[in-house]
Amino acid sequence: MLQPTRTCFALAAGSLVLGLVGTGVAVADENPPRTAPGHAVVLDDDDDWEEDEDGDEWGDEEDGLEEDGNGEHHGKPGNHHRYVIGKVVSKGPLNIRSRPTTHSEVVEKVYPNEKVKIRCKTRGETVAGNDLWYRLPEDDGWIAARYVKNLSPVKWCH
User: Fold this and answer.
1) How many other CB atoms are found less than 10 A from the CB of residue 142?
2) Which contacts qualify for 33-40: CB closer than 8 Å, 24 or more apart?
3) Mean pLDDT over residues 109-123, rounded?
4) What gap in Å lies between CA 71 and CA 91, rounded to an integer?
5) Which residue has the higher pLDDT, 133 or 73?
6) Residue 102 pLDDT > 70, yes or no?
7) Fold of 45-150
8) In this structure, are residues 43 and 49 in contact, taking their beta carbons and an 8 Å threshold?
9) Which of 66, 88, 118, 144 is positioned for an S-S bond with 127, CB 3.0–4.6 A?
10) Neighbour-count burial of 80, counting CB atoms closer than 10 A to its CB (0-12 exposed, 13-18 middle, 19+ buried)
11) How far is it, in rounded angstroms, from Cα 63 to Cα 61?
12) Which of 108, 106, 103 is nearest to 125 (CA)?
């Protein structure tokens, strides 16, 4: 006996949906390896870069702080900073500026594919449609976020 066309289409569509859902579940992995595509690259341990529980990259810099052997840091308060890293995606050298504007002094340059430490972000002069600027550590200056791919979320400057 022949089945109605509608029933055949419904069964085919249901099988397709179940097949796709099943494939998605089979491919998902709760803890992908560190070398998985799309997973942030972590600098070596000498640079104090780590990953937090969410897989975000961050680094700690203890300016003036000393470790007491128990993992505790002592020194001037307020000198313990947390950073994320970004990758320069400009086509040529990218200027590091003294303020978040292209009219301020160029204090240094970074180059394509170079990784930079980012302390925080703020709004400044719009560069190629993006008004965000990243603050580099140690008062090294500002770089236009338009040309830097942050590898994890960047907090706002206070």
Assistant:
1) 23
2) 40/85, 40/151, 40/152
3) 96
4) 42
5) 133
6) yes
7) SH3 type barrels. (2.30.30)
8) yes
9) 144
10) middle
11) 6
12) 103
